[in-house]
Design goal:
The protein folds into 2 domains: 82 residues, Beta Barrel (OB fold (Dihydrolipoamide Acetyltransferase, E2P)), CATH 2.40.50; 233 residues, Hypothetical protein af1432 (Orthogonal Bundle). 40% of the residues lie in helices and 16% in strands. The protein has a 5-stranded antiparallel beta sheet with strand order 3-2-1-4-5. The relative contact order is 0.10. The structure holds fe (ii) ion (2 copies).
Length: 333
């Protein structure tokens, strides 16, 4: 969506930068210079007579709702603010600010439940059912990105990444028949759950949380497993340590942050599926931005895709992953 001068603004924005200043001259007037960002526009704006707004605590890293108009200043768009209100994290319309997952959240939730219904192991089922009723964690899980950059850096990105991995896990189970699908599907659900704390939907535009920086998402996921398994009184069950292992080994190598390297086939496959899904998403996204026979940028700003890719004439721009749980898979389980 592009903006035209004169168009009305009635949207949520993320404050990228906020700087207090005063105009020069005999009659200095205080203002707050705001760098605003949402899905539609990225621009600067001035909040005049800032003293009147001081109590609203508008600062870098917060979300605001703005009513105003788009103007032009030095050939660039600028929002002239008529009304501005700070918006609490829980009330932010993230879909207005950031790009969203390519599959609607309602479909993703349906697929998530479909894949989880395949898990027959009692202990793993109990753990999955238990996490699904943790309202605070699941709200973040449904909304948060999988990363602030690199891959699935969009609203519902964490859920999209998880569901897409489950689909890949099932496809691989169809071929590598010895794999245990209960471990794989459960591993997909839990592997990045700690990102609900490490990143969380409230931190989409900014830094990782302090807890996230201190502990990392694998340790946070591990803490959640320990807490819920003890609440269910199943912490000594055989499967729990296998779930723990899949979480702390899913980055594959110690130099990538894993506490241990994968020690059984499902853990190894989980790690492969994780990076495969991240790379696949980024490749598809970058190729969608260019024309046939063009190459992606030489220096990509993502760690996931470090090489150039050409969009050849056979590239299929339809969805990057198969988002429906297909009945044909059930025959091999
Ligand atoms: Fe991870
Ligand atoms: Fe992941």
């Amino acid at each position: 969506m592009s903006w035209i001068v004169g168009q009305e603004v009635d949207h949520d924005f993320f404050i990228v930068e906020a700087t207090e200043d005063v105009t020069k001259g005999n009659n200095p007037r205080p203002y707050l210079s705001l760098d605003l960002k949402n899905k539609h526009i990225e621009c600067n704006s001035k909040l005049w007579d800032y003293d009147d707004h001081r109590s609203k605590d508008i600062e870098k890293g917060c979300y605001v709702h703005i009513k105003g108009d788009v103007k032009e200043f030095n050939g660039r768009p600028q929002v002239k603010i008529r009304e501005i209100e700070k918006v609490a994290g829980a009330d932010v319309d993230y879909g207005d600010i950031y790009k969203v997952a390519s599959t609607p959240p309602i479909e993703l939730k349906k697929d998530l439940m479909g894949y989880l219904s395949l898990v027959k192991n009692e202990t793993l089922r109990k753990m999955n059912d238990k996490i699904l009723v943790q309202a605070r964690i699941m709200k973040e899980f449904y909304n948060a990105p999988a990363a602030t950059r690199n891959h699935h850096d969009c609203v519902h990105g964490l859920m999209e990444h998880t569901v897409s991995m489950m689909g890949a896990a099932l496809a691989l189970k169809c071929h590598y028949r010895y794999l245990n699908i209960d471990l794989l599907i459960t591993g997909c659900l839990w592997h990045d759950l700690g990102k609900t704390v490490e990143i969380g939907s409230f931190n989409m535009g900014g830094e990782y949380s302090t807890k996230g920086k201190l502990l990392g998402h694998m340790n946070i996921s591990l803490d959640i497993v320990t807490l819920l398994a003890s609440e269910l009184d199943i912490e000594e069950e055989y499967e729990i340590d296998f779930l723990r292992h899949m979480i702390i080994s899913h980055h594959g190598r110690k130099e990538y942050g894993s506490a241990v390297i994968p020690g059984f086939p499902e853990a190894q496959f989980l790690s492969i599926i994780d990076s495969m899904d991240a790379i696949s998403k980024v490749m598809h996204e970058k190729l969608m931005e260019i024309e046939t026979d063009q190459w992606t940028a030489r220096r990509s700003n993502t760690l996931t895709l470090q090489t150039q890719m050409i969009r050849h004439k056979f590239f299929d721009p339809t969805p990057s992953y198969f988002s429906r749980l297909d009945d044909k898979f059930k025959g091999v389980l």
